[in-house]
């Protein structure tokens, strides 16, 4: 290690490496010869090869070495199962797993937690034992939400982290570059491979002035979402700068970075500043703060004169409180305008439920500001008109507000305190106050509000705003209410106005850690055995895929020629299939069931090449596999667009697929296919797609000389008529060709590990 400063208080083997990172940065600066933004500095300081890496924003693919990986429980299952099949004794990079997504809100914290522990026992047991085995920190159910725990314990300025959850960027509030990825990327980093990212563009957001009144950090990102829309940040990092940056708390910056995911940004980040020092001190990490100060100028801030691809300015002096929604987080409305907008759009103005907390907004500051409004209302004898729930982001937050009285204030107000978990934010909500299909409005301090997300009811109009505004709406019970101008009536019918919120950024008496829910990996891990029941329908150990037989492939049937858009949702649907994320055999029953068969225009209805019988895609594929026959899929443009879901590549491999041949691929899916040992190939002549009939048989020729940049040949045997040939291109590099030969990237890793 190049310093004795630990990255956190929980791991004794990981140290901050500012010195090495600064050396890397100097190499890159010498080559680029221009001032760098803060986000660029963190990225380039983590390059695998700072000397040779090509760097052009928006063009090059960077090979990076992240400092750590964080996984939530829904995505961790397949990531760990895959890591296990690499045959390594422990993860190569610090990793933590967080149990937060599988806890349903019903009765309130303790009862809901107990129910979740029994319902998800086998998943939790698997995660706890596999974490212990492979040297991974395990945060059990009840510990809190991944991003809050990362902020409180692991994030620090200048670090690079990946996480298997889209709101990983939350840690940008502590000056860390934190990026949400799919499980396959996490596995690479766990297994010591560099992680690849297209060099992002950088959007600079300049903050000037200072907020006051009802305006809070949440309003910065609500406003920004309105400016950029949900797509505006795609392929870019949002970097904040300007005087306004130093006027609010570190957790407020976390909220802003968290919701950067809603504009599609790769991540968001704030430069190191005094609020981060305060937060590090308050969370017992003063040593890190002192160390960071030494590197502030050279590493932990943007260079003077650096250039952004785009600059957006927000004046905090004039920024109004906002409320965004319904159905999309970029539909931004100032609270003062909501009255007219709601009526014009016929949105239900009766607010039914107010929900605060979640990974976005459950800091001590959020809780104290929300509580200040409630106390003010209580002094007039007024309580919540709506239902009201609180989802604490972590056990530390829950215990601290329990000790300091805010929790009691929420309960007196009529609130229900839920488990420290995602709960209603991810639809884990047994909502009873309305029937499915009832048109209604809810207001939350969460980040996402897509149709049906919170309660599965497409008629629920879900709005997102700051926690203090949620409380104001809960008191008024009306979406048209504006606390800055409108009066309320007290218990005696006298009019009064709510005072603007006030709160404290950090608990004056320090944080109370609450119950200890962290399981550190044991020193001696050799005796730990990983718990997977052979009869489980939710978890299944992975068996290594067979290596390539060293020959060209002949007379392969076409499982399906898919027509038009084929996204990862068509390839591997979500919804009810989520519970099988840790069971490859079961989840493979959704393979391509959403794709349209070019032969008949139907979904999940394909002809078996040998029996002539029409059946679902997964059943037909399994039949081929069981007969020892490999198959191909023919696809259209941008095949596999959508999420980075690795199941979309694992499933066809599990079902015996050999090649996926398309007009073009979405890049992440293409890489995922390569990783699983399938051949993603492209028509050089795109008109060949039209010529192929689903009944044809396919030869793939030239595999014995597979080399970067060298085309293969596809020979097509129509049922009746002459065979014809067409060239196929691919994007394999030399290392990826090894993945194909070994049968998968993990097989290759396992072999390297054995030797
Ligand atoms: Fe959980 Fe919602 Fe955050 S699902 S991680 S609380 S965005």
From TrEMBL:
Superkingdom in the source lineage: Eukaryota
PROSITE patterns in UniProt: ACONITASE_1, ACONITASE_2
Pathway of action: Carbohydrate metabolism; tricarboxylic acid cycle; isocitrate from oxaloacetate: step 2/2
EC number(s) from the headed UniProt entry: 4.2.1.-
Family matches, as InterPro entries: Acnase/IPM_dHydase_lsu_aba_1/3 (IPR015931), Acoase/IPM_deHydtase_lsu_aba (IPR001030), Aconitase/3IPM_dehydase_swvl (IPR015928), Aconitase/IPM_isomerase (IPR050926), Aconitase_4Fe-4S_BS (IPR018136), Aconitase_4Fe-4S_dom (IPR036008), Aconitase_dom2 (IPR015932), Aconitase_mito-like (IPR006248)
Manner of cofactor binding, per the entry note: Binds 1 [4Fe-4S] cluster per subunit.
Catalysed reactions listed for this entry: citrate = D-threo-isocitrate
Protein's recorded name: Aconitate hydratase, mitochondrial
């Amino acid at each position: 290690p190049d310093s004795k400063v630990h990255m956190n208080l929980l791991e004794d083997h990981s140290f901050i490496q500012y010195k090495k990172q600064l050396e890397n940065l100097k190499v890159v600066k010498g080559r680029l010869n221009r001032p760098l933004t803060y986000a660029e500095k963190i990225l380039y300081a983590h390059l695998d090869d700072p000397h040779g890496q090509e760097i052009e924003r928006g063009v090059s693919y960077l090979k990076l070495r992240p400092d750590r990986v964080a996984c939530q429980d829904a995505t961790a299952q397949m990531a760990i199962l895959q890591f296990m099949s690499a045959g390594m004794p422990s993860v190569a990079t610090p990793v933590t797993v967080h149990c937060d997504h599988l806890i349903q809100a019903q009765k309130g914290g303790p009862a809901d937690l107990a129910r979740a522990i029994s319902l998800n026992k086998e998943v939790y047991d698997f995660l706890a034992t596999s974490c212990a085995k492979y040297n991974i920190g395990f945060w059990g159910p009840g510990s809190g939400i991944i991003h809050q725990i990362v902020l409180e314990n692991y994030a620090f300025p200048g670090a690079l982290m990946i996480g298997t959850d889209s709101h990983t960027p939350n840690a940008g509030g502590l000056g860390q570059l934190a990026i949400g990825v799919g499980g396959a990327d996490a596995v690479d980093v766990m297994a010591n491979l560099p992680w690849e990212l297209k060099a992002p563009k950088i959007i600079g957001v300049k903050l000037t002035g200072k907020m006051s009144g009802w305006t809070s950090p949440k309003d910065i990102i609500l406003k920004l979402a309105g400016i950029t829309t949900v797509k505006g940040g795609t392929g870019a990092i949002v970097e904040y700068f300007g005087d306004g940056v130093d006027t609010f708390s570190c957790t407020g910056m976390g909220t802003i970075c968290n919701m950067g995911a809603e504009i599609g940004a790769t991540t968001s980040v704030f430069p190191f500043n005094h609020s981060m020092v305060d937060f590090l001190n308050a969370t017992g990490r003063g040593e890190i703060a002192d160390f960071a100060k030494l590197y502030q100028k050279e590493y932990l801030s943007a260079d003077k004169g650096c250039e952004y691809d785009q600059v957006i300015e927000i004046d905090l002096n004039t920024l109004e409180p906002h409320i965004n929604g319904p159905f999309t987080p970029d539909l931004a409305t100032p609270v003062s305008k909501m009255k007219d907008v709601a009526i014009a759009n016929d949105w239900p103005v009766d607010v039914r439920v107010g929900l605060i907390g979640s990974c976005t907004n459950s800091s001590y500051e959020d809780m104290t500001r929300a509580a200040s409004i409630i106390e003010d209302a209580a002094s007039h004898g007024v309580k919540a008109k709506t239902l009201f729930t609180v989802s604490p982001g972590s056990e530390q937050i829950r215990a601290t507000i329990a000790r300091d009285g805010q929790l009691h204030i929420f309960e007196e107000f009529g609130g229900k305190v839920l488990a420290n978990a995602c709960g209603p934010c991810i639809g884990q909500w047994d909502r009873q106050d309305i029937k499915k299909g009832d048109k209604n409005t809810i207001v939350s301090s969460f980040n996402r509000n897509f149709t049906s997300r919170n309660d599965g009811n497409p008629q629920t109009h879900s709005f997102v705003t700051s926690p203090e505004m949620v409380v104001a709406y809960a008191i008024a019970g009306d979406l048209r209410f504006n606390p800055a101008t409108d009066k309320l009536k007290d218990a005696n019918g006298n009019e009064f106005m709510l005072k603007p919120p006030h709160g404290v950024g950090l608990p004056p008496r320090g944080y109370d850690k609450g119950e200890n829910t962290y399981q550190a990996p044991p020193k001696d891990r050799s005796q730990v055995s990983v718990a997977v029941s052979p009869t489980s329908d939710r978890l299944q150990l992975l068996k290594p895929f067979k290596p390539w037989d060293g020959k060209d492939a002949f007379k392969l049937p076409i499982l399906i020629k898919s027509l038009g858009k084929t996204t990862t949702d068509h390839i591997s649907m979500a919804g009810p299939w989520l519970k099988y994320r840790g069971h490859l055999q079961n989840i493979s029953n959704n393979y391509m069931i959403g794709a349209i068969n070019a032969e008949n225009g139907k979904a999940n209805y394909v002809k078996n090449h040998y029996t002539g019988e029409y059946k679902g895609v997964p059943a037909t594929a399994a039949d081929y596999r069981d007969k020892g026959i490999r198959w191909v899929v023919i696809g259209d443009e941008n095949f596999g667009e959508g999420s980075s879901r690795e199941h979309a590549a694992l499933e066809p491999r599990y079902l015996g697929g050999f090649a996926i041949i398309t007009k073009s691929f979405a890049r992440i899916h293409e890489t995922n296919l390569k990783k699983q040992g399938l051949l993603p190939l492209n028509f050089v002549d795109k008109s060949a797609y039209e010529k192929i009939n689903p009944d044809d048989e396919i030869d793939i020729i030239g595999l014995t000389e597979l080399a970067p940049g060298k085309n293969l040949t596809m020979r097509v045997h129509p049922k009746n008529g002459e065979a014809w040939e067409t060239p196929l291109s691919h994007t394999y590099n030399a290392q990826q060709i090894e993945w194909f030969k070994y049968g998968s990237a993990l097989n290759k890793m396992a072999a390297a590990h054995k030797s």
